[in-house]
Design goal:
By secondary structure, this protein is mainly alpha-helical. α1 packs antiparallel against α3. The radius of gyration is 19 Å and the shape is globular. The two termini are 35 Å apart.
Length: 252
């Protein structure tokens, strides 16, 4: 099952890479991030040859999460051209297309494979009846999904007002975390992993929320985004009093 899912993700990311080069916009990788997980969910459940309630629930949740995220990113980027991170790499990288293929698209594909582990693990394994971990998983997923959705909505509404150009958004959910949308994403994958805990060796799938949390906190999320705000008025004060990721937890 690992090889099958790996091949599906590889072909998907190759297709997105080709489209991105034609459009001269590597931000497409972000737009299709959620769609890739939907593809993995649908492929793995169809290939499993059998459907049960747990698989239906997990695939539905992934579909809901992936469609919302991809739609949000598409609307956010529409008309704005390539994201500043990708623009900078386009202007500074030698062998840009080759590096883009491996360092953007294939690297994202690798993370997609690991993070989606609970989804294809569940779909390729027959499960027993719905139990405690499934209900707890729904609680965590629901909390994360609502948190992520509300945080994105609040920030989008703030940015719509031209009077807020160059200002920091520090109210609403953003008053308790500098990145509540990322925190919601971590909860989503923790919740999905819990659906695997009733299955043999299901505990291994907890690598998914661990990886996405570390990735967002220390690699591709918080550090990259916050570089853009370092010189804005009030940033130092906001950073000092507000947790980076987990609300009210200053050290994380």
């Amino acid at each position: 099952m690992l090889l099958e899912v790996s091949l599906v993700i590889f072909l998907f990311m190759c297709l997105i890479f080709i489209v991105a080069q034609i459009k001269k916009n590597n931000s497409i990788a972000d737009t299709f991030w959620g769609i890739g997980f939907i593809l993995v969910a649908l492929y793995s459940v169809v290939q499993s040859g059998e459907i049960d309630l747990r698989k239906i629930i997990v695939c539905t949740l992934v579909l809901l999460w992936g469609m919302r995220l991809s739609h949000h990113i598409m609307m956010r980027n529409m008309g704005n051209g390539e994201d500043s991170r990708y623009k900078n790499w386009r202007n500074t990288w030698k062998f840009f297309h080759i590096r883009s293929f491996f360092q953007i698209f294939m690297l994202q594909g690798l993370f997609m494979l690991v993070i989606s582990y609970p989804v294809w693990f569940i779909n390729f394994n027959s499960g027993g009846p719905i139990g405690f971990w499934d209900f707890l998983g729904l609680v965590f997923f629901g909390t994360g999904f609502i948190t992520e959705t509300m945080a994105d909505y609040q920030l989008t509404e703030f940015k719509k007002d031209q009077a807020n150009e160059g200002r920091l958004f520090t109210t609403g959910m953003w008053s308790i975390s500098r990145h509540p949308n990322y925190f919601g994403e971590c909860l989503v994958w923790l919740g999905l992993s819990m659906y695997a805990l009733n299955l043999p060796l299901g505990w291994y799938t907890l690598i998914s929320p661990i990886i996405i949390t570390l990735l967002l906190r220390f690699v591709s999320g918080v550090p990259l985004v916050e570089k853009k705000y370092e010189n804005r008025p009030g940033w130092g004060e906001y950073k000092a009093k507000t947790a980076a990721l987990i609300p009210f937890v200053k050290f994380f």
